Amino acid sequence: MKSSVSHSVGIALGSNLGRKLAHLQIARDLLKNIAVPGTAIRQAPVYQTEPVLCPDGSPDFFNTVVEIQFSGTPFELLDHTQAIEFKLGRIVAAERNAPRVIDVDILYFGGETLDAGLLVLPHPRLTSRRFVLQPLADIRPELVLPRDQVPIAEHLRHLDSSEAPLALVQAHW
Q1: What is the CATH class of 6-170?
Q2: Can you tell me the distance from the alpha carbon of 88 to that of 80, in angstroms, rounded to the nearest whole number?
Q3: 87 phi and psi, to 5 degrees?
C-alpha cells in the first residue's frame, strides 16, 4: 500500500557504456512513472565526467541528478531503482565499479536517515563527489541534508577533490 506522504528524493544517474544519454533519458522517464502523479521532476544538466575509482581504461561517464516526489518507503524506492538498472541491462560485475550501462543511486529521501547495509541515507559519499555535487547543486543548491548544517552549494564550493572539472554535455535533455 502506498503511503499518502510524499518525500522529495534525489537520485543520481550515471552511464559509461553504450548510448549513455539515451540510458539516462530512459531511466529518468522510468522514474517519472513512479513519481507522485502531477508532480514536477527536477533534472540537472548532464555532465561528462572522468571515472572515479574505476578499473583502468574505463570510459568517461555521463552523470546527472534528478529529484522526484515519491510516496512509499526507502526500500520500495530501492526496489524501483534496482528494477530500472535491471531493465536497462545492468549486470552485476565481479570487479568493483566496472563500466555499466546505468547506475541509479538514491542520494537522499526527504529528511530520512537510514543505515541498513544495502541502503544508507543520505548516500555516504554524496558530499565528496563532484560528479554528484555539481548536478545536485544545479537543482537544489540550498538543500541541507539530514544530520548536516551546510547547504549543497557550500559543500561544492569547498570540495577538496582530485576529480577533473565536469564538462557539460546537455543542459536540457
Answers
A1: alpha beta
A2: 12
A3: -60, -35
Place of cell 552485476: 92
CB 91 within 8 A of CB 66: no
Q: What are phi and psi of 15, to 5 degrees?
A: -150, 135
Q: Which of 123, 143, 138, 146 is nearest to 169 (CA)?
A: 138
Cβ contact 53:97 at 8 Å = yes
The C-alpha atoms of residue 27 and residue 81 are separated, in whole angstroms, by 9
Length in residues, the chain = 173
| Assessment of whether the complete model's pTM goes beyond 0.90 | yes
Domain boundaries, the chain: 6-170
User: Average pLDDT by consecutive 10-residue portion of the chain (173 residues)?
Assistant: 80 96 98 96 96 84 97 97 92 70 96 93 94 97 96 96 91 94
On whether the CB atoms of residues 45 and 64 are closer than 8 A, the answer is: yes
